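[User]
If only I could read backbone structure tokens as easily as an amino acid sequence. I have put the entry right below:
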Amino acid sequence: HVPGPDCRGCDTADEVQRDPRDTSDPEIHYGIIASGNMIVKDAATRDWIVANVGEDCICFEMEAAGLMNNFPCLVIRGICDYADSHKNDRWQRYASATAAAYAKELLLEYVPATEVQETKRVLEVFELG
């Protein structure tokens, strides 16, 4: 990828062509999420993290990095880019809606409503509210 705000300078011969999916339904993946305090937006950094964390690392995020060490939680992510220089905001809303829909379904299916209502809020756990 050549430096710049978009892909106009990229060589289209380097594009990876993929067959269309059989369905437009979202896909759900389970695995290791690398969490840190910086945005990953170049392929070299992404590949280095995967090489050091392991092939089971399926995505990167930064929002839960400070939370997970102090608060037991399950992180559900909507994926909107490939953590490379082509990163943009085009798919963020779709990814957020997909993750929210999955989280809701997971809670409705596996966690009794009374348990959800009795669970302490994050602010209470950290004694902030």
Summary: The chain has five helices and two strands. Residues 28-125 form one domain.
